[in-house]
Specification:
The protein is of the alpha/beta class. It has 13 helices and 13 strands. The strands form three sheets. The chain has a seven-stranded mixed beta sheet, with helices on both faces.
Length: 420
């Protein structure tokens, strides 16, 4: 695949538009800095807009000076009915994805978003959302469409898309010496959404962790190395993420797999299978036999299907039931135990995990710093009991003379305990 890139140079640096994908862009102080993110932007855009992975590609580039607004591309002078339908759907899904990410934030006013070409003085997530609304309204107005601003971004965007029905696909508009068309309007609105979402994601993931803030745009940042997953498993994980199925966040999964690979266990016990992503991932990085327990029948059945699809039926034994009832009946020693079931039950499972773990083995417990309780953050009232149970587990493994425990501030917190 060959991509056409248009670079616009201005006082703030370089803005690179990927013409093939309306709304996809890169920005940086230099051309080289901007293009460093090309693969990640193409990957995230295709995952979000077309639900597919990016194929291999190269690109050709056109360079020009930038004005206050992006220039009109020749490819934007006409818009077929098929393109219009696709762009209108993307306008709505883009607004819905941005709104979902924003609504996940505990305190939008308190989340600093840094600086960028799109912010124009917006220093927190709430102000940045207002900036995104302003950008959309301005773009729609440029072609004679209307975009209400009621504070409900998805509803406002759907109303704006309805107002596009009267706009011809080849209609050309001029405003203050600048040319606009339907396709250019769509490109600039979607780019504004992506710029806003990327700034929020970068800030929110650093503060709250990837497991608490949704990432419907599938942004990838330079500091995130690729996960060591087979293409098939990576695709299945992507589908699970898009469905909202509970799965390990990138940072937590990466750390889990690094630990498993280093320990090279022969037997692994997992408590909390979900749909089987983590068990399958562990099976890909070691030769262990894995026993995994899942209480919910629906998730257990989906995990069984996943193991079968990956040819792991002989190496992964899934058990459906309450871990509190199954653990006492398990026999034999395990070299590695991954604890990722109901958090309130961690302290209840601990004696069984100690009994089943061989001397020198590792107990890897996820989500032990939920809601930032270890940093003194205020705990939501409805979650105080949950946090109390997690706190009891952390205190128990930290003070147990038979365990050597370290707490890692990765994702929502990980406790790694080695049996002495």
């Amino acid at each position: 695949m060959k991509l056409k890139l248009t670079e616009e140079y201005g006082e703030g640096g370089v803005l690179v538009w990927i013409e093939d994908f309306p709304g996809a862009f890169l920005a940086g102080e230099t051309e080289r800095a901007a293009l460093e993110g090309l693969y990640g932007e193409v990957q995230s855009y295709l995952r979000f807009a077309q639900n597919r992975e990016a194929p291999s590609f190269d690109h050709e580039t056109e360079r020009r000076a930038a004005g206050e607004r992006p220039a009109l591309f020749e490819s934007e002078r006409a818009c077929s009915e098929e393109e219009r339908a696709r762009l209108e759907a993307l306008l709505v899904s883009s607004a819905e994805a941005l709104w979902q990410m924003y609504c996940d934030l505990p305190s939008p006013k308190e989340l600093s978003v840094g600086d960028g070409f799109f912010q124009r003085g917006a220093t927190n997530a709430e102000a940045l959302m207002l900036r995104a609304e302003e950008n959309a309204a301005d773009c729609f107005a440029a072609i004679g469409a209307t975009c209400p601003r009621t504070g409900d971004l998805p509803a406002d965007r759907r109303a704006a898309v309805l107002s596009l029905k009267e706009i011809g696909g080849e209609a050309l508009f001029e405003r203050e010496g600048e040319l606009w068309t339907l396709k250019k309007c769509c490109r600039c609105v979607i780019a504004g959404d992506r710029a806003c979402a990327r700034a929020i994601a970068r800030a929110a993931f650093a503060v709250y962790g990837t497991s608490r803030i949704s990432n419907p745009f599938f942004f990838r940042f330079k500091e995130s190395a690729p996960l060591p997953l087979s293409p098939r498993l990576a695709s299945l994980r992507l589908s699970a993420l898009k469905e909202g199925v509970p799965t390990e966040d990138d940072a937590g999964l990466r750390f889990l797999l690094e630990t498993v690979r280093r320990e090279a266990p022969r037997r692994i016990l997992e408590i909390g299978t979900a749909v089987g992503i983590s068990a399958a991932a562990m099976a890909e990085v070691c030769a262990a036999h894995i026993v995994t327990i899942e209480k919910k029948r629906e998730l257990y059945e989906r995990a069984q299907e996943l193991f079968a699809a990956l040819g792991l039926e002989r190496r992964v034994q899934a058990i459906c039931g309450d871990a509190g009832e199954i653990l006492p009946a398990l026999e034999g020693e395990f070299d590695f135990i991954f604890l990722d079931g109901p958090k309130v039950q961690y302290i209840r499972y601990l004696p069984h995990c100690k009994r089943l773990l061989r001397r020198g083995g590792v107990l890897f417990a996820d989500d032990v710093l939920l809601f930032g309780w270890g940093s003194g953050n205020e705990i939501p009232k409805k979650r105080k009991m949950l946090v109390q149970h997690i706190r009891e587990y952390v205190e128990a493994v930290s003070s147990d003379e038979e365990l050597e425990t370290k707490i890692y501030e990765i994702g929502e917190g990980i406790a790694v305990s080695r049996k002495l």
